[in-house]
Write a structure and sequence with these properties.
Distance between the termini: 129 Å
Number of strands: 24
Structural class: alpha+beta
Radius of gyration: 60 Å
Strand content: 15-25%
C-alpha cells in the first residue's frame, strides 16, 4: 500500500508564498494606518513613536507567522497520520516508520541547512529524528529541550554555543514528536529591520514631504531627494555597480550615506552569493566526476561486482566481470528472467542463508566459497564477500565475487600430486622396510651357520692331535667363512648407510703414520703387478687427527684397491694436502683433499653415474668377475657421512681420477707401545667349577659354545628357548647365562626381562649372543637387562674376555698355538732354545712387504697361507714364520707389524 500519495505534504514554496502574502497584507494595513497617523500629526516625535510601534507590531507578527507555519507543519503530520489510520495500517510499524521517514525527508527538503529558518524534530526520548547539523539518532539533552518537552507548545529564546536563538515549538501527540521551528536572533532582527527600515524610509519620505510642504524647501533639496530616489530605483532594478552618492552633514547627507552603506552591503552580499553559487557548481562538478570515476572502477574491475536490494534480493547493477562469471546478460537479470536460484546450486543454499543471517546481524558477510552454475551448465567456483550500503534511502547488498576455478583446479592437482607422492613414499618405505627385514633375516640366517663353521675352526685349531694337512684345511674353511662374513658385512653396511643408521666412532690416531701404512701396503701390490705407485703429500699434514680411522681406512683401501686392480700399465698415485695451504694448531678443523689417480682402463662418461650404484660394475668384462659392486657405493656414502663429498673424472683407456674432501680435526698423537709377541693359550680357570646355561634354538650354535667351554672346565646345561630356560632355572641355578635373542616360544628379550623381575635370578649375569648386528638389537638387549652383547660368529677370545669380566675369573694357561704346530721333526721348544729372534733368518724385503700388506688388510688367513708357502719355498725361514703364524692366530696385528717392519728395508 502506498502511504505517501501526492498532496499529502505542503511544500516549502507554498508555505513561503502564504507567509509572504500574509506579511504583505498585514504590513500594508499597518503602513496605511501609520501614514495616516503621520499625515495627521506631522511631527518627528510621531515618526519615532511609530518606529517603536511598528517594531513591536512586526515582532508580534513574526511570532504569529512562525506559530502559524509550525501549525501548518503539525497539521501536515496529523494529516499523514490520519491517512495511515484511514488505511488501517497505523499498527504496522514498518509502514508507519516509512511514512514518518518520508515526512522527515520532506521537512529536511523544505528547510535546508542554507536557509535562515530551520526545523528539528525529536522524540520523547530526546533522540533526534531530524536536525540540520546534528546526526540522526543522537541524544539532545539540554535545558531548553527539557523546557520545551515540559511546556509541549509555545515559544522561547535560548542560547546555544554563544548564539541566541528564537524558537516556536509544538508537540505532536500522535507520533510523540516535538517539532521546533527556530531562527537565530540575528537573522530574525535582520528580517524585522528590513520592514522597519522600509517603514522608516517611508516615514522619512513622508516627513520630507511634510517639511517640503510646510517649510517650502528649496529645489536643491528636492533634487537631492530625487537623486536618492533614482538611485534606489537603480538598485531595485538590479544595478549594483553604481558610484557612491555625494555625502553631506545634513539629514539628506545621512540618508545618502545610509544608501551608500546599503549599496556596499548589497554588493558584498551579491559577491558572497556569487561565490557560493560558484562553490556549489564546483561541488556539483566534483560530484559528477566522482560518480564517473566510481562508474569507471565498477565497470573496469577484474573482480565481479554486483548490487542487490536487501529487501527482496533483486539485482540492481552488475559489472561485466560478474556477468562473465555467470554467463548471463544484465538485462536478463534485471528483468528477473534469471534470478538467484538459476545460478546457485541447491547444495550451496544453506551456506548462503547462513551468510545472509550474518549480513543482517553485522552488516557484512564472507568471505566464503560457493559454486555458481554458469549459463552453459558448467560449475564455477567463486569466493564472495560483501556489505550493506545505503543509496537514496535504500539498503543494498554490495558483493565482491572472485572466480577461483583455476585456484581450485590447482588445489586439486596439488592434492592429487601430494597423494601420489605419499603413496609413492609409502611404497618406498614399505619396500625399504621389507628390504631391511630381509637383510636382517638374511644376516641372522647366514651368521647362524657361519657361527658353526668359524666356531668349529677355532675348536679344531686348538686341537693338538690334528695333522698339518688337516690344519691347513681348517684354515681354508676359516678363510672362506671370514670372506663370506666380509660380504655379509658389506651388504649390511650398505643397508645401514641407506637407512641412515650407520654411526661414526671417532678416535685420535696418527695421521702421517696412517698414510704411511696405506702407501706401504699398496706399494707392494703395485710392485707385484709391475706398475708404479707414488705417494705425494701436497702440503704440511697434521701428525694426528680425530676421526673414524676404520671408515677412512675402508675408503682409501677401496679407492686405491680399485685403482691398482684396473691398472695394467703406468701407475697409481695418491696425493694428500690441505684445500687451503695454511697454518693450523691443535683442535682446528681443516679440509683435507685426497686424490687417487691411475692410468687404468677408465670409465665412459655415460657410465660414471652407475659406478656409485650398489651391485653395479662397468667397463671391460674382464674386470667384472671379482667383487660385489658395493665398494664405491659404500665409499661414497661413508664420505658423505663424514661430512665430505667425492667427485670423479675418467677417460676410457686413459685412466680415472677420484678425489674427495674431508673436514678433519687436528689432535696430538703418541705412538703406542708394541703388544707382546705371544700369548699363552687359556686352558682353564682357578677356583670352584662354574655352571653356564646356554639358551639357543639352533643345535649347532649350542654345540659350538659347548665344545668351546667344556674343555675349560665349565659345567653346562642347554635350553632351546626362553620358556625351557626358565624351567631349567627352577632346578639349577647357573653362574652365567649365554642366550640368543631371536627364538620361538619365548625370545631372549622376554626371557631376560623375566629374570630381572625375579629376586632369585636377577643377579645372574646374562650375555646376549646374537646373529643380529643391528645396533637397535644391542640397545634392546641392554634395555631388557643383558650385561653384555657379542655377535655371531662368536670370536672365542672376545667371548672368554666377557666371561672373565662377568665372573671375575683367573685363567690358567698352557702351550701357545705355535707350540702345537708340527715342525717337521723340530719341536717349538727346540726352536725357541736354539734360535732367538735376533738369530732367526727373516724374509727378504719383497717377502716382508707382501706379508705386511696382508697385515694392513687384516687378512689373517692370507698371512698364514703366505707363511706356509714361504716355508715350502725356503725351509730356513721356518722358525721366523712359525713365530709369525703364532701371532697371526692370536690376531695380534700390532705385534705382526712390529715383527715385519725391520725386514722391509733390509
Amino acid at each position: 500500500m502506498n502511504t505517501s500519495p501526492q498532496g499529502l505534504y505542503v511544500s516549502r514554496e507554498q508555505m513561503n508564498q502564504k507567509t509572504r502574502l500574509l506579511i504583505k497584507r498585514k504590513v500594508q494595513q499597518k503602513f496605511a494606518l501609520f501614514l495616516f497617523t503621520m499625515l495627521a500629526l506631522f511631527g518627528l516625535p510621531v515618526v519615532i513613536t511609530g518606529y517603536i510601534v511598528i517594531s513591536n507590531i512586526v515582532y508580534n507578527l513574526q511570532d504569529q507567522i512562525f506559530t502559524q507555519e509550525l501549525t501548518t507543519i503539525h497539521n501536515t503530520i496529523n494529516k499523514a497520520h490520519q491517512v495511515l489510520e484511514s488505511a488501517g495500517v497505523s499498527s504496522l510499524q514498518a509502514y508507519v516508520s516509512q511514512a514518518q521517514e518520508k515526512v522527515l525527508v520532506q521537512l529536511a527538503r523544505d528547510y535546508p541547512k542554507s536557509t535562515q529558518v530551520n526545523v528539528f524534530v525529536l522524540d520523547e526520548n530526546k533522540q533526534l529524528l531530524l536536525h540540520p547539523t546534528l546526526p540522526k539518532q543522537s541524544a539532545l539533552d539540554t535545558t531548553y529541550v527539557n523546557d520545551m518537552l515540559s511546556q509541549k507548545t509555545g515559544s522561547m529564546q535560548y542560547l546555544l554555543n554563544g548564539v541566541e536563538y528564537y524558537a516556536v515549538f509544538q508537540w505532536n501527540s500522535d507520533w510523540h514528536w516535538l517539532i521546533v521551528l527556530f531562527i537565530s536572533k540575528d537573522a530574525l532582527f535582520a528580517e524585522r529591520s528590513f520592514y522597519l527600515n522600509t517603514v522608516l524610509a517611508a516615514s522619512i519620505s513622508v516627513l520630507i514631504a511634510v517639511i517640503l510642504l510646510s517649510y517650502f524647501l528649496t529645489a536643491g533639496i528636492s533634487n537631492q531627494i530625487q537623486l536618492i530616489l533614482n538611485y534606489l530605483k537603480e538598485i531595485e532594478s538590479g544595478k549594483l555597480q553604481l558610484p557612491p552618492l555625494p555625502s553631506s552633514q545634513d539629514e539628506l547627507g545621512m540618508i545618502q550615506a545610509g544608501v551608500n552603506t546599503m549599496l556596499s552591503q548589497v554588493a558584498s552580499a551579491n559577491q558572497a552569493m556569487l561565490a557560493e553559487i560558484k562553490q556549489r557548481q564546483q561541488a556539483e562538478q566534483e560530484l559528477r566526476d566522482s560518480e564517473a570515476y566510481w562508474h569507471l572502477l565498477f565497470e573496469e574491475s577484474l573482480s565481479g561486482l554486483v548490487l542487490h536490494r536487501l529487501s527482496d534480493g533483486q539485482l540492481v547493477d552488475a559489472n561485466p566481470a560478474y556477468l562473465k562469471i555467470i554467463g548471463y546478460s544484465k538485462e536478463a537479470l534485471l528483468t528477473r528472467k534469471n534470478d538467484f536460484l538459476d545460478i546457485t546450486l541447491p547444495a550451496c543454499l544453506q551456506a548462503d542463508y547462513a551468510q545472509l543471517k550474518i549480513l543482517k546481524q553485522t552488516g557484512r558477510y564472507g568471505p566464503y566459497e560457493k559454486v555458481y552454475l554458469h549459463s552453459s551448465g558448467q560449475q564455477v567456483f567463486v569466493r564472495l564477500s560483501g556489505l550493506i550500503i545505503k543509496r537514496g534511502g535504500e539498503s543494498l547488498i554490495w558483493s565482491n565475487v572472485a572466480d577461483i576455478s583455476d585456484l581450485k583446479a590447482s588445489e586439486r592437482a596439488l592434492r592429487k600430486a601430494i597423494n601420489e607422492a605419499e603413496q609413492a613414499q609409502f611404497a618406498a618405505e614399505t619396500a625399504n622396510r621389507a628390504k631391511s627385514t630381509f637383510l636382517a633375516n638374511m644376516s641372522h640366517e647366514l651368521r647362524t651357520p657361519l657361527n658353526g663353521i668359524l666356531g668349529y675352526t677355532q675348536i679344531l685349531q686348538r686341537d693338538e692331535h690334528i695333522s698339518t694337512k688337516q690344519r691347513e684345511g681348517v684354515e681354508i674353511i676359516q678363510r672362506s667363512g671370514e670372506y663370506l662374513l666380509t660380504l655379509i658385512n658389506d651388504i649390511l653396511d650398505l643397508s645401514k648407510v641407506e637407512a641412515g643408521r650407520i654411526d661414526l666412532y671417532c678416535t685420535t690416531f696418527g695421521f702421517v703414520h696412517f698414510l704411511d701404512e696405506i702407501t706401504g701396503l699398496f706399494e707392494m701390490r703395485a710392485e707385484q703387478k709391475g706398475i708404479a705407485f707414488i705417494y705425494e703429500p701436497l702440503s704440511q699434514l697434521p701428525s694426528g687427527v680425530y676421526a673414524d680411522e676404520k671408515r677412512l681406512r675402508q675408503v682409501l683401501i677401496n679407492l686405491l684397491g680399485n685403482a691398482v686392480k684396473f691398472t695394467e700399465h703406468g701407475g697409481v698415485s695418491l696425493k694428500v694436502g690441505l684445500v687451503q695451504n695454511q697454518t693450523f694448531k691443535e683442535g682446528d678443523t681443516i679440509d683435507v683433499r685426497f686424490q687417487i689417480e691411475d692410468t687404468g682402463v677408465g670409465v665412459a662418461s655415460h657410465e660414471l653415474e652407475r659406478i656409485f650404484l650398489p651391485f653395479q660394475q662397468v667397463g671391460d668384462i674382464r674386470h667384472k668377475t671379482e667383487g660385489t659392486g658395493l665398494g664405491l657405493s659404500i665409499t661414497k656414502s661413508l664420505i658423505e657421512l663424514m661430512g665430505g663429498h667425492m667427485e670423479v673424472r675418467s677417460v676410457p683407456h686413459q685412466g680415472s681420477c677420484f678425489w674427495f674432501v674431508l673436514p678433519l680435526t687436528t689432535a696430538p698423537f703418541l705412538v703406542k707401545d708394541s703388544a707382546p709377541e705371544a700369548m699363552p693359550v687359556i686352558r682353564g680357570y682357578e677356583g670352584e667349577r662354574r655352571h653356564v646355561l646356554i639358551v639357543d634354538d639352533k643345535l649347532e650354535n649350542r654345540s659350538v659354545l659347548t665344545n668351546l667351554l667344556t674343555p675349560l672346565g665349565f659345567s653346562l646345561s642347554e635350553a632351546c628357548n626362553g620358556e625351557e630356560a626358565l624351567l631349567c632355572l627352577e632346578h639349577t641355578l647357573p653362574d652365567l647365562i649365554l642366550t640368543d635373542l631371536v627364538m620361538p616360544v619365548m625370545d631372549g628379550f622376554e626371557f631376560t626381562r623375566h629374570i630381572r623381575q625375579s629376586p632369585r635370578f636377577q643377579q645372574i649375569p646374562v650375555i646376549a649372543v646374537s646373529a643380529s648386528v643391528f645396533d637397535y638389537h644391542q640397545l634392546e638387549s641392554e634395555a631388557a637387562g643383558c650385561n653384555a652383547f657379542i655377535s655371531k660368529p662368536v670370536h672365542f677370545g672376545a667371548l672368554l674376555e666377557l666371561i672373565q669380566n662377568q665372573l671375575d675369573l683367573q685363567w690358567t694357561y698352557g702351550a701357545t698355538l705355535v707350540e702345537m704346530l708340527p715342525t717337521h721333526g723340530h719341536s717349538t721348544q727346540q726352536i725357541s732354545d736354539s734360535n732367538s729372534l735376533e738369530t732367526m733368518i727373516g724374509p727378504s724385503p719383497q717377502e716382508a712387504k707382501q706379508l705386511y700388506e696382508l697385515v694392513m688388510m687384516g687378512d689373517i688367513a692370507g698371512i698364514i697361507k703366505r707363511a706356509d708357502d714361504l716355508q715350502q719355498q725356503n725351509p730356513a725361514l721356518m722358525p721366523f714364520l712359525q713365530h709369525l703364524i703364532g701371532l697371526a692366530r692370536r690376531f695380534d696385528e700390532d705385534a705382526l707389524s712390529t715383527l715385519l717392519e725391520p725386514y722391509l728395508t733390509q
